[in-house]
Every structure is written in structure tokens, then in C-alpha cells.
């Protein structure tokens, strides 16, 4: 194979191949009598390996270290690893296309494009003009944007809570604290009732650790005025305590 052929086969440019030669990352093959480089299947496998490693975010120095560790491995083993990597990418693409198809088929939403799991949750939530409820929807959409499996599991577990009409009363009580002080006596009982209202099924899918210490937790807290923030902070701590209690049981 010539340089243009190996570059096209692997999906890089000839300039990239020459750069890898220049920095010593890809050994330069011997030239034929006509002056052209002649590449083998082993060269193509090595070039594909470099491309895969750079695509997942490794620097060229890190790629060099990985390739050094790979020295001496059988060609069949390296090919098998590349094949498994391609299969993983195919599964990921297939999953993303399924989500995209569901988004395209869903009716338009003022919350923007939503995953099927969140759309199903909001569909069963009662209509309300509560500002706190609207803010909750925004936070769920933010979690949904992360697109991980944990979010989908949380949305499914929240379904019974969303269908509970008593939750609207809790939202209204949270609305009443919008301009309250952080020492308002209504904070503690409301936080306790909110913690108690969360089904055990939700606890089973909540991530371990203190939610307020995570990036999402900090963003969520910063979105509330002082008294409401204190309620939400206590709810986070209360739920974390319930999770630890389940794990210790």
C-alpha cells in the first residue's frame, strides 16, 4: 500500500501519516526502488490503533506509552481488540440513533428535546403554575441533558411521585419561602416532608455520596434563593442519609 491508500483505509490524511513518521510515532517503512513507501497490514493496524487512542482523548505522548506496552503482541490479538472497539462504537451509535428517533417522534415540548424517559415522567405530572415546580422541570431537563443511564433510572423511579397530587402542596409551600429568611421555622418541617415523600425506589438509583458536593448539586443549590436553598440542601442531606441507611441495613 502507498501512503494515500493506508491513510484512506484508516480514515486519516496523508499529512497525518507523515506527521506520525516525523515524530517517530509510526515507523517509516522502507522505500521501494521507485522511491515510494510500501505499507503493510501491520502498519495499517498500528495506524488504526493510534487513531483510536487519539480519538478517546490521549495525547501523542500517552499514545507512545501505550504502543510501547503493546510491543511484541500478536497481530491477531491487536486486530481482535480493534474489532471489539468498533463493535462498541456501533452499539453506542445504535443507542444514540434510537434516542434520536424517539425525540423526533415525540410531540414538541416547551422544555426542549427530551429523552423518552423524562418525557414520560412529565406527561404524568399534574399541571401547575408553581414556580418551584417549573424550576424542578428545568433541573430534570439539565440532568436529562447528561444523557446517562442513571438519569433515565431516576426518571422512571420518580413516576409515582409525579402522579401524587399531594406533591403540588409541597411545591406551593416551597414557593412561599421564596423571600423568607434562612432561619424561617417552616424550613425544617417542609424539608422533612419532602425527604419522606421520595419513594424508596428512587433511593435505589441515586448516586452514592453527598449530592450537594457534586457539580450538579452545587448548580442546583445556586439556583434557589436563601430559604429555598436551605430546604433543598436539607433534602439532599436527608436523602443521602436514607441511602446510607439502606446500604447499612
From TrEMBL:
The record's annotation in SUPFAM superfamilies points to: Putative DNA-binding domain
What's the superkingdom here? Bacteria
For this protein, the record's InterPro entries field holds: DNA-bd_dom_put_sf, MerR-type_HTH_dom, MerR_fam
Domain (HTH merR-type) spans 1-69
UniProt entry keywords in alphabetical sequence = DNA-binding
GO molecular function ontology, one term from the record: DNA binding
Pfam family name, one: MerR_1
PANTHER family associated with the record: HTH MERR-TYPE DOMAIN-CONTAINING PROTEIN (PTHR30204:SF93), REDOX-CYCLING DRUG-SENSING TRANSCRIPTIONAL ACTIVATOR SOXR (PTHR30204)
The name this protein goes by in its record: MerR family transcriptional regulator
Native organism: Streptomyces violaceoruber
